[in-house]
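Structure tokens please, single chain.
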Amino acid sequence: MENTGLEIKPFRVVWFTSFFNRKIIKWSIEKTNLLSLWFNLGVIVSIILLPIALGVLIKMTLSNFVNKSTGDTADVNWQLELMIPGINVPVSDIQYYIITLGICSLFHELGHAVAASRENVQIYGVGFILALVLPIAYVSINQEQLKSLKIPGQLRILCAGVWHNIVLAAVAAVIFYLNSWIWIPLFVSNTGVFVTSIAMNSPLLGAKGLETRDIIFKINNCEVKNNDDWYHCLLQTIKEPTPGYCVKQNIIEVIHFEFFFFFLIYTHIRDF
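Here you go.
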């Protein structure tokens, strides 16, 4: 498999290729001014956040040691914990773990590759490692050319990966907090309340009552559009007298006959 760049080793699979080199070089020479601003900003942000990140890391590490020695778990906001699939990451969620790590690693190395190409540092290729279930991307560049660069150029390359991860984390946070607004066009609102579950001992449960996934539009004559209307209508129903309904005579006769018929059967069985 040497021609494909694929290597299978104990507990890991490695793939290295130069196939993407041309694409990376093309990206690095497009919009030069914008990329220059982008990577310079990355250096500034990374340098500013570096001492903060180190402080948080030291704080969490010390908190772990102190909590373990004293048995105190009060400071739960400062905990350093490794994410290990199958131990503290549910196996059912492992696909999200793998996808997230893969995207973060790929975006990180893409930053290094584009920044290196901009600084005229030779790129040998990019690679991917699957170690057990952990996907890891990497980029191979000419280390001698990297060391020969001036400090600003080296910083632009070295900080590019961290900078890309910071941006990716910020974008993910924005999407997370705006998630309901992003997907709102796909949902219908203010058209009733959706029944998600019903208590097993509820008198409403049954074929002639409610079922999960039902939508309630009215309670008696009180219109229900949202949760606030739902609670308002419930209170209104409790406070007001129970309404009566007009029923046709033939329906009453049928109900009366059925009741009388079942009563006779029940009495006969009981006497028997």
